[in-house]
TrEMBL record:
The keyword Transmembrane applies. Residues 4-137, 154-292 form the EamA domain. Pfam families: EamA. Keywords: Membrane, Transmembrane, Transmembrane helix. This is Uncharacterized membrane protein. InterPro entries: EamA_dom, EmrE-like. It comes from Pseudooceanicola nitratireducens.
Length: 295
């Protein structure tokens, strides 16, 4: 029988792929990277808050909850903005794959923040995934070294988003563990609090730095609302999986997103994938398979 955290990880991956497809359309349809990111939080917040208000007994939280929740919420905002910007520089499948460096980094972040790690064979699998990321970098055609490769904008955005997503995943797990309730309520309450932080922080930023963008997000509600719905479904599944299991293992199972994004890239956006990119995607996928096998 499939363990529940694996089911929630796979479900989260499916919803997240659909949401990123919708965000790509919005990012190329008049909204800035910040606006497309804000749409995700704005249109999912009211739904989850309404559900929380219907919960008869609110859970008790430990003092360490809010530091974890705030750090997780802010780093997820930064990570999502990087992904939206990445969509504007690379095609859909490669953008998602570069973003999936989160899988290789979450274990390391988990060791630092929560003291949760993997075995040496698991770390070797992570190194294999890094090699796949480098194959996907497509650096400028100049006489170069590893430095010029790593300074490529697409690589920088992908790695940066991976680091931020890794931090957010680990801190979300940390926050959820500070809530005294059954897993379903813990994940729901944590998600509601994080969304409150994200809507407030990113909304204030857009009002100050990008006047008019909040209004444009509101006008795009017909498409943006679907981002909110898929984001809510995906986020709840991620939060539940993080509550039940080590964030590194959760993201490892979530690597099936690479396959889904490749299918979406070809079928919906009619983009072409080069042989080198397919090989890079294959290496990262292999690294995840090995990681799952040794954990």
């Amino acid at each position: 029988m499939m363990e529940s955290w694996i089911f929630f990880s796979l479900a989260a991956t499916l919803f997240q792929t659909i949401r990123f497809m919708l965000q790509k359309v919005l990012a190329t349809g008049g909204l800035s990277a910040g606006g497309a990111t804000f749409a995700r939080f704005l249109y999912s917040g009211p739904i989850v808050w309404l559900i929380v208000l219907l919960v008869p007994d609110w859970p008790t939280i430990a003092p360490g909850f809010w530091p974890y929740a705030v750090v997780g919420g802010v780093t997820q905002i930064l990570a999502t903005v990087c992904v939206v910007l990445l969509f504007q520089t690379r095609n859909f499948a490669v953008g998602i794959t570069l973003k999936k460096t989160e899988v290789l980094l979450t274990v390391l972040v988990g060791i630092v923040i929560l003291g949760e790690g993997v075995s040496w064979p698991g770390f070797a699998a992570m190194v294999l995934g890094v090699l796949g990321v480098l194959l996907l970098s497509d650096p400028p055609k100049v006489q170069g070294s590893w430095r010029s490769l790593l300074l490529n904008r697409a690589v920088g955005l992908g790695l940066t988003s991976g680091i931020f997503f890794a931090i957010s995943a680990v801190t979300y797990r940390g926050a959820s563990l500070q809530v005294e309730a059954e897993p379903a309520i813990r994940s729901l309450f944590t998600l509601a609090c994080v969304l409150m932080v994200q809507v407030s922080a990113l909304g204030a930023w857009l009002l100050i730095r990008e006047p008019g963008e909040v209004t444009r997000v509101a006008r795009a509600w017909r498409r943006a609302a679907w981002i909110g719905v898929t984001s809510l479904a995906g986020s709840y599944c991620w939060f539940t999986a993080f509550t039940l299991e080590n964030a590194g293992y959760v993201f490892a199972v979530g690597q099936v997103e690479v396959i889904l994004s490749l299918m979406a890239s070809v079928l919906f956006f009619h983009e072409k994938i080069s042989r080198k990119e397919v090989f890079g995607i294959g290496l990262i996928t292999l690294s995840v398979v090995v990681l799952i096998a040794v954990t």
